Amino acid sequence: MNLSIDVTNNEGVSNVVLTGEVDAFTAPKLKDTLLPLTKEQGHVVEVDFQDVNYMDSTGLGVFISALKSTKEHGATMRLVHMQDRVYRLFKITGLTEIMNIESTVQGGM
Amino acid sequence: MSTLKLDLENYKELLQEYIKTKDEQALYQAEQFSKHSMQQNISPEEIINVHIQSLQEIYPDMPEYIQSSMNFLLETMISYGLAYQEFQTLREKQLELKSEISVAANMQKTLLSTVKPDLSDIDVGALSVPAKQMNGDYHHFVEDGKGNLGIAVADVIGKGVPAALCMSMIKYSMDSFSGIRTDPSVILGNLNRVVERNVDASMFITMFYGLYNSNDHTFTYSSAGHEPGFYYYKDRDEFEEIDVPGLVLGVSPEVSYKQYEKRVEKGDMIILLTDGVTECRQGDRFIDQEEILHVIKQYSHLPAQGIVDQVYKHFERLQDFQLRDDFTLIILRRNV
């Protein structure tokens, strides 16, 4: 499976729309796109998960390093429109407690 | 087809025959000749050299310009010869690496090996199968001689060699804590500090740590973002998810892990696993929890090791015997 990453920048906000699967094969590409966006003071990175139906732990690793990077550089990241299956992964690993995540699923929060 | 000898005579005959007859058979033999030469590590320029000599012998009056052009070609091919040599060296190196990795995999097996405890009160089944050569899953049993059995199940993010190296670090940290305090929450807290300091930002580890006290049959446990296990109540014939909140190891330096306790009744089971079990896929279809529990139940008349083995076989079949991820499953059942 492939992952397409579309980034649109608008007044200090980067909108990153993901389509496909985030796994060991696609994670490096995501990391290369996402990390530079988190290195700007005050910058907001919004990642849209609407069309991500699968993510594995390698994908989680990318978001963990992105989170660490936003903290280091004074940027913020939020993850939006997350599907149930993907949200479960963030929930189990305790990351929902430390990341700004908005799920589409009712009762998911 | 005659067996080919790699020599001038042979090449000369083939060439002569082809020039005379334009026969396909000779071309086919030329192909065999080149395959055979490659097996013998013969470089392209050596073949051209053989060609030049054959020509000279077949046509002693060969015009000088053909002779010169052949020498020219010979020089041109030298770079190809070097590239071919390089390819040979790389191929040898790759074989070397492959064998080194398999030595490392064996070492890892020895380093991380754990003895499945043989206890009269609890029946233990455990299985861990790597998807690749090296295992990124880890499980470990520790007995303290006072009736306590510690069980660790962990999964390092990522697969292969980096994950395996990380696992060895965890194993040694755990060894250094053991004997001091065995509370699951304390062990996870300590490990978290070690991992946070020592691994790359995108790496993390999930771990479930449980302590079974066979004196009073209590099970104490904490989880660092690990795939939830299951608890089976014998009297109700029901499964319940062991859903324990806790952040994965290595993300934030100061995390405190909550500890929970459960009283285990006779016939109850504790099922611990890694996401290699729950992330099993059949084509595009994911295996859901219900299915895992259904399979466990189906074999629940067997000893714990039998259940574990059968569940593995079931999912191995579903995935056409190609594991996507490391697979670890542990079942504990109270006997008496």
TrEMBL record, chain B:
GO MF, any single term: phosphatase activity
Keywords, in A-Z order: Hydrolase
UniProt-listed PROSITE patterns: PPM_2 (PS51746)
Domain PPM-type phosphatase: 123-334
InterPro entries for this protein: Bact_Sigma-Reg, KaiA/RbsU_helical_domain_sf, PPM-type-like_dom_sf, PPM-type_phosphatase-like_dom, PSer_Pase_RsbU_N
Classification via SUPFAM superfamilies: KaiA/RbsU domain (SSF101215), PP2C-like (SSF81606)
Protein name: Phosphoserine phosphatase RsbU
Species name: Halobacillus karajensis
Protein's gene: rsbU
